[in-house]
């Protein structure tokens, strides 16, 4: 079974490109959920509503979590961005 700690450890490898700090350490990851089939979802909250790096961080975080052994699927939900609907459609298509 995949755990929240597994997900957090994978996400610690993804850094905000402007700060050079892990998105976990920056507090950008919220509401990690793992279902019985090891489908993972979590929210990514950018530091500002017009963050131009959020797409890269979202894709990087999705790829990092996909590498965890046993993970079936990953959904990243961007919240608090002025284009969150469009970003979420692209990231999770």
UniProtKB/TrEMBL annotation:
Q: Which organism is it from?
A: Methanothermococcus okinawensis
A Pfam family recorded for this sequence: FeS_assembly_P
Q: Which residues form the MIP18 family-like domain?
A: 4-76
The entry's protein name is Metal-sulfur cluster assembly factor
Domain of life per record:
Archaea
Task: List, alphabetically, the SUPFAM superfamilies matched.
Answer: Fe-S cluster assembly (FSCA) domain-like
């Amino acid at each position: 079974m995949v755990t929240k700690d597994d997900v957090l450890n994978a996400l610690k490898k993804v850094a905000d490109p402007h700060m050079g700090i892990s998105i976990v350490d920056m507090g950008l990851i919220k509401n990690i959920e793992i279902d019985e089939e090891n489908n993972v979802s979590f929210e990514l909250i950018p530091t500002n509503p017009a963050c131009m790096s959020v797409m890269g961080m979202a894709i990087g975080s999705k790829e990092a979590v996909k590498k965890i052994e046993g993970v079936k699927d990953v959904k990243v939900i961007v919240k608090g961005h002025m284009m969150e609907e469009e970003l979420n459609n692209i990231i999770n298509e």
